[in-house]
Each structure stands twice: as C-alpha cells, then as structure tokens.
Amino acid sequence: xAYYAExxxxxxxxxxxxxxxxxxxxxxxxxxxxxxxxxRARPSDLRRGLTYEDCNLGPYGYDAIxxxxxxxxxxxxxxxxxxxxxxxxxxxxxxxxxxxxxNVVALYEEAxxxxxxxxxxxxxxxxxxxxxxxEAAMAQLCTFLEEVALVAMEMPSKWVFSINQEFLELxxxxxxxxxxxxxxxxxxxxxxxxxGHGLGRASVSAEQALKELLSAETYPEASLGTNLxxxxxxxxxxxxxxxxxxxRADRLLATLAMQDVARSVAxxxxxxxxHLAHQPGKAVALAEYLDRTEHVVLGIxxxxxxxxxxxxxxxxSVDRDRLAAGSRFARRWYTSAVEEYFERAAAVGLPRRExxxxxxxxx
Amino acid sequence: xxxxxxxxFTEDQPxxxxxxxxxxxxxDLSWLDAPRERVTCRxxxxxxxxxxxxxxxxxxxxxxxxxxxxxxxxxxxxxxxxPEGLPDLQAEVNRKSEVWAYNVEGYYExxxxxxxxxxxxxxxxxxxxxxxxxxxxxxxxxxxxxxxEVEMIATDVPAKWMGRLNxxxxxxxxxxxxxxxxxxxxAEIFRKRALSTGWGLMRASxxxxxxxxxxxxxxxxxxxxxxxxxxxEGMVLTLFRFSEYISPTEGDKKLxxxxxxxxxxxxxxxxxxLKWVLDHFPERREAIHHHLDEAENFVFxxxxxTEVLEPFIILSGKGLxxxxxxxxxxxxxxxxxxxxDEYFERLAKCGLPERRExxxxxxxxxLRKQTxxx
Amino acid sequence: MPAVSAPPPLRFPSRDFFEALxxxxxxxxxxxxxxxxxxxxxxxxxxxxxxxxxxxxALRFEVFDCVGVxxxxxxxxxxxVEGPFAAWREMLDTxxxxxxxxxxxxxxxxxxxxxxxxxxxxDPDGHDKLYRFAExxxxxxxxxxxxxxxxxxxxxxxxxxxxxxxxxx
Lengths: 363, 374, 169
Known about the structure:
The complex is a heterotrimer. The mean pLDDT of chain A is 96. Chain A folds into two domains: 9-64, no CATH class; 96-360, Ribonucleotide Reductase, subunit A (Orthogonal Bundle), CATH 1.10.620. By secondary structure, chain A is an all-alpha fold. Chain A is built from twelve helices and no strands. Chain A is elongated and about 85 Å long. Chain B has two domains: 9-60, no CATH class; 96-373, Ribonucleotide Reductase, subunit A (Orthogonal Bundle), CATH 1.10.620. Chain B has 15 helices and no strands. Helices cover 60% and strands 0% of the residues of chain B. The relative contact order of chain B is 0.10. Chain B starts with 12 loop residues before the first helix and ends with a helix. In chain B, helix 9 (221-246) packs antiparallel against helix 10 and helix 12 (306-317) packs across helix 13. Chain B is mainly α. Chain C starts with 9 loop residues before the first strand and ends in a 19-residue tail after the last strand. Chain C has helices at 15-27, 29-35, 85-98, 107-111, 124-127, 129-132, 134-142, and strands at residues 10-11, 40-47, 55-62, 65-71, 79-84, 118-120, 149-150. Chains in contact: A-B, A-C. At the A-B interface, helix 1, helix 2, helix 3, helix 4 and helix 5 of A face helix 1, helix 3, helix 4, helix 5 and helix 6 of B.
C-alpha cells in the first residue's frame, strides 16, 4: 500500500458531527450553487443517438481542452466546478497534441457501434478441423496473430493510466482499442484451436520486434509505431486472410478483425497529422524513430511463422509448383503492404519511400 | 531508452536471405514439426458459441495452468511451442493466485456479448421531453457529476496492471480490457446524462478523489483488485441499485439497469478473485485485512462528500421541502446500511466472515443502527 | 381483362440498380444497425467493354442507411472501386446464385491486389474506410441477390441455386 489517507476518519469528530447533522435533515447544500455552466446536449441526429460530438458544448466540450493542461491533475470531470485540495493523481501526459486526433471522437463512436463478439458472431460450426496442411498453416498463422494482438492490446493499456483525464474521449478510444484487441486475442486463439492442429510455434523474430515497439519511450512514438506502422501491416494481414479464405467463417472473422484494425490505423494517421500540425519540430525525431524502428515490421511480416503459412494458404498445398504461386502471392502482398504504409506515412508528413531500409521486391 | 530487439532485421543478412527464400517458395516448414498437443475445440453449447471454456483443454487450458508460471516469460500464447530466443516480457505477476478468479473466462464472455452503447441504447429523445424541477434536476446533475468523475478509475487501475501480468493470464487481461471499456462507457453515460439535464456538470468531489488516489497507488494487483472490484465497486453497485430506485424518469431507470449489469460483473470478478486467493494463498488473510482497514477508512471519510450524500437525500425524498428531506434521509439511511451490509456479506461469502467483527466501519454502522432504533 | 406485363427488370449498371439496393438496405435496417455506424461516400466505376464512357455512381452512407445515389461527377468520395464490366458481372452473378458473395468474389478478394477491381483514392484515410466498413459494404452488395436485373446485352444473372453455398470449396 503506497498512499494513506490524511487522517483516521473514524476518529474525526468533525466528520461524525457533519454526517449526523445531515442525516438529521440539516443539509449544507454547499454544492447546490456550484454550476459548471448550463447546457442542454441534444442528439443532432436521432438515428445516431447522443454522441460525444453533440456534447462538445462550451466548457464541457473537447474543443475547449487547451494545448497544455496545467492545473487539472485529478479525475474531476472536464467542465465541472473544481474545489480546492484536489489531489494530484500523477498524470504525466498533459499535452493535447501528444495524444489527440481530430477523428478520435468519431472513431470511438464507430468502435462502439461496430462491436462484435467472436463467440457468437463467427459461425464456428461451419469450420471443419482436418489433417490438411492448409489447416496447419491456418493454426500457425492464428498463433502468430494471437501474439500480435496481445501486444496491440497492451500498448494502449500501458499509456492510459498516465494520460490526463481531461482527454476523456481519447482515453475512451484507447479503451475501445483494448477491447478490440482482446477480441482479436480471443478470435485468433479460438480459430487455431478449432483447426485440429492446436497452437503453432511462437515467433522469436516477431516477439523481439513487438517488444521493441511496445517499449517506445513516448506516446507519440508508441502510437506511430503500433497504430500506423504495425497497424498498416496487420490490416494488410487481415485483408490477405479474408482474400485467401475458403470458408465463410474465415472470411467473416478476418473481415471483422480488419474493421477494428482499420480504425486503429485511422487513429494513427489522424494522431500523427494532429501531432505534427501542432509540434512540427517533432517530425525530425519521429522520422529518426522510424529510421531505427521500422525494421521491426520485417521481423514481424518476414517471420517464418507468418510468411510461410501465408504462402501455403495461397498455394493450397506444399507441392513445389503450387508453392511458386503461393510465393508470388506473398511477394505481392508484402509489396502492397509496404506501399500502403509508405502512403500513410507520407500523408501524415513523414515520407519514408527514400529513407526506408525495408526491402523492396521485384514483383 | 527503449528495448532494442536482438537484431536489426533489415541488416541481418541471414534473416533477409531467409525472407527472400520464403518469397521464392523455398520454405523451411520447421514450425510444422514443432511439438504440440493436437486438439479440436468445439462449442459445447451451440447457442453460446465457442467460448474460452470450450478451449480449456490440456496445456492450452486454464484449469491445468500451474500456480507459478516458470516457463513462459514471453508473449507466447499459452500452450504454443516456445523456441529459444523469445524476449522476456518482464512480467511482474507470475503467480496465478495473484490474479485468477473462479469463472474469469465466463465473466469475459459475458462482457463481450453484453456490451451496450451509451449513444444509442438510452432513449435520449424521450429524456429530452422531460423537464426536471430545479431541486431534482440539480441534485441529479450533481449525482451524475460524481459518477462520471469516479468511473474511469476502474479503467486506469486495471489497465496499469495489464502489461505487468504474465501472458499466460490472458483471460484476466481480456477481462481487464472489457472492464476498461465498461468504465469508459459509464463515464460517458453519466456525463452525457448530466449534460442533457439542462444543468450541466456541478461540483467535483475532493474527498472521493483522495479515494481514487488510494486505488491508483495500490502496490500489487491483488490489493488493487480487492479495493477496487470488491470494496469500491461493490458499494457502487448498491448505489446503482438505489439510483435505479430513485431515478426521476423511466429512461434513467433503464440507464441504471444497464450500468448495474456491468458493475455486477466487475464485483463478481472481485469476489471470485478473493475466493481464489483465500483458497490458494491463505497466508494472505492478514494482509487483506490490513488493506481493507485503510480502504474502509477512505469509505468512512466519504462522509465529507456532501455533494454525494445530499443529492441522494433530495432525489430519494423527491425534493427540498422538510417532509421530502425527512423521507430522503429515511431512504438514504436504509441505502447506506444496505450498502454496508452487502459489502460485509460479500466478504463473508468469499471466505472472510471475520471482517465484520474486525471492521471499524462496521462498528460505526452498527452504532448508527442502534441510534436509529433508539 | 388485359394482361398486365411484369415491369422490366432493372439494368446493371444503372442508377436504378443502386437505388434498388438502397431500398433493399432500408428493408434490412435491423441487420445493418447491428453492424454499426456506416459513414462513407464511395464511388463505383464500371468500365465499358467497348471502350465507351464508364458508368459511374457515388453512394452515400450515413449512420445505418444509404442516403444517396448519384452521379460520381463532382462528388468528393473516400474511395472509388473501379473495374471492367466483366469483373463486376462475375461478382454479381456469384452473389445472385449463392445469395451472397463467396470467398473468391468478396469485394476484399477482388480488390486485394487490384487485379480484378481496383481501389482509387486521394487520401489513405479515405481508402481505409473501405476496411473500417468492410462488412457493411459487402452486405450492401450482397443485397443484389434479391434484385431482378439484366445486363446491357439482355442476359440475366444465374438463378439462385437450390442449395446456396458461400464457401469457395
């Protein structure tokens, strides 16, 4: 136990008298006149319900959050009337452009609306376990994706505790990311364990790479690395699995996961745009971060635990001729994933095409 | 100052060579031969779908998970083959009884299927049409201000611990993720409702903020869970039930029923976690009592939070007139006694029946009961 | 009594075709609501086999509904899915026969490497909306299974198979 109350309240006569008085009907009503400002939030679109955008009103709104949050270190709700003696809860991330994105409010609402539950939304009964090398490949691929999802879940959880509560909508989106990735941990594991092959092998290169991403020193780096860089490739992975699926269950599983990952990528892009618009000097440091960190996606997407199963799924077997076709698919996949990552990076103001050390392939 | 992977993959020629070989169809396939337990998991109950309980098989399952996780310090999924070279996650919590709870997998699956949406699942249009009188409106806005203020402590605290738990405890991590989302939703619904009353937000609650700091600064997951899930959320659950009872509109009743469902799940985890700890780690009993001594100190100090107690009285009694206050006090007294009763009852059910006798909080409650009876 | 002839079938590609999809989506409100908010405007471009002008449409989606079908010209879109008539026809034929796209003919599969259908966009953020709303977009096109339509040459998509199967195998 680290923190103790300022007194032993059981011996606090003043407290006992206060409560006794109130429960005798003598209310203080000291809070009764403390109004944060009268507003009435209404849904602007009844189909959509009452969104956070509808609540973006006056001192309560996210538009009112300053760039530097200097004197609010408690969990007092934004716009509420502060009182003296609020504790400092120890937030270390107090600068809006370190975390904010213009699309984060909409993405939070979208995440809630587009939720799904793997247990019941994937038609598991349609899957047939089998001895096939395809199923073995799928089991290995899902083992790998479970590892990735675990780390993607831990990234937001690592930072949310340190982020000022003024950034409520952003913290809420991080919660949505956590549950999205929990869902992916669950879904990929379930898919592997329905295959008949059990789980595959953990990936040394992917895990080393993921640990490097997870240990980013700042939130902007963590978001850039996990949402934009890794997210780009994981999105491409989900698309590939959906494209290679032979069953409705696998197509649906990969498509639903794709939706979730695409939201994280959208936040990553939006966050970088906002961050660099307000802190343009950080572009140099973030470019250097990518210079030294970008290699991790090769460790992840180039891991045999990912790439070989993809080749096999594309090939349909391990016959030499079929593997040639499968490897052509993998080459195209990698090239297209790198290209789309470069596009996103350029769009946020971090052009990578000339600087990147990622291998380029002749397709 | 970050971890650097053991190689720079783009400069690691053997790695790049292997990458290029794979892309020419020259596969190693050694992962196919990795030793493994071959299982085929199927939904035991088709209506429930494929659950974590269906995956509780052999080395993949949670039942056979040992008390101490000695082998896996990486991100390797439980039961996966673990080659040499996996990184050390630096997990601080590697003992099952620090985190586990009976039925944690059930709580997770329930959470995933029972996610609701504060934006769309409340009848906002209906609530708009109701104009609350000033005394009720302000009291309600103040209660909502308190609730929106405190809810996300139960996001921040469990999330802080998620990355410190061994990866083998992923069912617990997943449950934490659902709780984080539940609490974000609660902060959202109470904030939105406050802003829709026409009164906006009212006063922050200093005394409760100190309680939040206590919860944040717990120095073990077990302590954090005990104080958060069982003590704090247990009492909040009773608060939600009474709030449903005193709600000014049908739409508000629905609101409290929805948040109550989530809260009950969190409390359920807290109870089952305490049970697990006491069943498997009985030497923790004294430490638990010591932690609850301070947690209850904060609870009692909550009496200073007039911005919580008084709105409750006004809402219960439905107004500020003398007779309303009298009725409000009667109901509020009943609520507080029930809240305490249920808290100690939960502790007793979890294997801590002696708590009531040891507790200063209980002595004060008992004193109040006697005073009321007299 | 004079015989009442059946209304002529819709034509693909045509604005009426997409308007009919819009109506069908309205009838499936609950299903699309469960999938969640669906907020994007995207274009569909069907190239003509004879090298003539492509058929182009902009489809607007908001909340849970398709709120507009219009000509693509001058409309700001998040992305445009384009491809030759033959590719679109193959997709629609499959949907009509099976009740929904099979895995070989889902929009994701067809656009995956841009070989059959391509995705054009100005901003990667707009592009990513194809993935954020992937299942809703797919189910929108799957609604064509219940439409009565014909192609420019007068031919129609195959009749629904007695036992609809959506796996490629």
